[in-house]
Amino acid sequence: MKRLSAIDIARGLVMVIMALDHTRDFLHIHAAQSPTDLQTTTPVLFFTRWITHLCAPSFVFLSGTSAWLYLNGSGTRNFLWKRGLVLILLEFTLVNFALSFDLHFRLFLFEVIATIGAGMVLLSQLSRLKPGIILAIAIVLLAGHDGIAFVKMPSSPVLGFIGSLLFGPGGFPLGSGRLFVIAYPVLPWLAIMLLGFWMGPVFTRQAAAQKRFLVRAGFTALALFVVLRVVNVYVDPVPWSPQKNGVYTFLSFFNVTKYPPSLLFSLVTLGILLLILAVATKGPAPTGQPAGRESAPGRILQVYGRVPFFYFVLHLYLLHALMLLTASWQGHPWGEFDFSPFKFGRPPGAGVSLGAVYAIWAALVIALYPVCRWYGRYKAAHREKTWLRYL
Predict the structure, then answer these.
(1) Is residue 286 part of a domain?
(2) Would residue 87 count as lying in a domain?
(3) How many Å apart are CA 5 and CA 144, to the nearest integer?
(4) How many CB atoms sit inside 10 A of residue 250's CB?
(5) Cys staple from 18: which of 55, 94, 320, 389, with CB 3.0 to 4.6 Å?
């Protein structure tokens, strides 16, 4: 399958943004404070978190689009479900350890990599359906999922686990001090993946037609977000409300729910993603002139966008190690490092300012560029190594 620069650029951009959120999570001295709690946050801290809302829906949506392009390019459905299972396995091993650094694995997190994997397993079968049916399933899941917030999950441990896995976040003790936490339930994220799959044919159109569709779809999603948010009923579990001043009222308006993703969360993030894809789509060159080269920012972002999983795992390990080194440099003895569930080794009081978080984020992204470029070239030059296709 030929890579599409617009998809790689958009994916690369959201990966760069993603690193900001994880840098804040690991290194900000007030990481335990909710950045979207309007009673305690600041506009800068709120924006630092809110802009990274783009990341998960973009990854999931583009995974669906890439799946359609792969199948349309004579790929097999067997690869989709196999890769999905590999991603789930990697979530509970390589990724979970990167997040916890806990040799005892007392916390298992079902997060974005696992939900993409589960979505691929389901998509390997749902892809047989007609496009109209796929779109209808996606719309029903997106529009109807917020109603689940008003439904009490079954008290039975087994049924409660299944309900949480499909619909909403939940935590489940496994015994021996271990905990299984579902942060990204499958069905609402599957809806976003199905939308991306349904939109796959758009990326086979001529550039001008592709840009028109993406612009119209993006602005339509954002307009629908504004209308529904003004109505302030049902489409997000947390209605907006007037705050202490206009700035915080504005933040309240955009303070949408990610866990699980509400309809409003999906509309605003996917609307922005579609506009990013439109900007990244190159128009035809003027008559008689050769096709222009990608812009410098586009070429840089493609380097990250071509190796998403490699970048994802590597930046988590680097940030977690940097957090431990920073805490040690700040004078915290090893006895204060706590690797129990949700502690991640962070000693009390360790961390840096938000300004330092931004500086570390920029340095990390720059440092990862040559490594990602090397791996992307290695992967492209060794297509005979089929195991690379799963990463």
Answers:
(1) no
(2) yes
(3) 34
(4) 14
(5) 55
The verdict on residue 225 lying in a domain is yes
Structurally, the chain folds into a number of domains equal to 1
Provide the token pair at 208.
Answer: 């001008």
**pLDDT of 335-355, one tens digit each?**
999 998 888 999 999 999 999
In angstroms, the CA 380 to CA 41 distance is: 44
Pairing of strands 170-175, 107-110: unpaired
Using CA atoms, how far apart are residues 159 and 378, in angstroms rounded to an integer? 45
Lookup result for tokens 């796959």 = 200
Question: With helix as H, strand as E and coil as C, how does 244-310 read?
Answer: CCHHHHHHHHHCCCCCCCCHHHHHHHHHHHHHHHHHHCCCCCCCCCCCCCCCHHHHHHHHHHCCHHH
Whether residue 263 lies inside any domain: the answer is: yes
Q: Name the least confident of 65-79, 149-163, 261-275, 340-354.
A: 149-163
Q: Do residues 87 and 189 lie in contact, with contact meaning Cβ atoms separated by under 8 Å?
A: no
Q: Please say whether the beta carbons of 368 and 360 come within 8 A.
A: no
Q: What mean pLDDT do residues 8-20 have?
A: 97
pLDDT at 277 over 60: yes
> What digits encode the pLDDT tens for the residues 18-33?
999 999 999 999 998 8
pTM: 0.94
Please choose, from the candidates 311, 281, 354, the residue with its C-alpha nearest in 3D space to the C-alpha of residue 47. 354
Range of the domain at 277: 5-281+296-390
CB 333 within 8 A of CB 352: no
Give the strands of the sheet with 170-175, arranged side by side.
107-110, 178-182, 170-175
- Structure token digits, residue 70: 């792969």
H-helix or E-strand spanning residue 160: helix 157-166
Mean pLDDT in residue range 173-185: 92
